[in-house]
Amino acid sequence: MRGDFYKQLTNDLETARAEGLFKEERIITSAQQADITVADGSHVINFCANNYLGLANHPELINAAKAGMDSHGFGMASVRFICGTPGQPQSAGAKAGKLPRHGRCDSVFLLFRC
């Protein structure tokens, strides 16, 4: 039974590759922006990033991230429930809450930690 599963999985992957539907990940060797460089040296246009505002390599955000790491380190030692909640995300959330409201939507600040 287990062998049948792996045979089907292998067949499905081969079919996806043959039909051009298998996603090959590229290693990006440049900053995230509209034009990026990948590991083989190719320069390509990046149509699939969430960086549509160009903030991933914005100098002010880079400096703010560096300042945050200098003062608070990199990441949490554990989850918020165990080690507590740092003050910075709360103050950022409070600032986001003061942004103008559009329609009935409140401003929301999301910070994901694992």
Automatic annotation (TrEMBL):
<keyword id="KW-0808">Transferase</keyword>
<dbReference type="InterPro" id="IPR015424">
    <property type="entry name" value="PyrdxlP-dep_Trfase"/>
</dbReference>
<keyword id="KW-0012">Acyltransferase</keyword>
<keyword id="KW-0436">Ligase</keyword>
<dbReference type="InterPro" id="IPR015422">
    <property type="entry name" value="PyrdxlP-dep_Trfase_small"/>
</dbReference>
<dbReference type="GO" id="GO:0008890">
    <property type="term" value="F:glycine C-acetyltransferase activity"/>
</dbReference>
<protein>
    <submittedName>
        <fullName>2-amino-3-ketobutyrate coenzyme A ligase</fullName>
        <ecNumber>2.3.1.29</ecNumber>
    </submittedName>
</protein>
<dbReference type="GO" id="GO:0016874">
    <property type="term" value="F:ligase activity"/>
</dbReference>
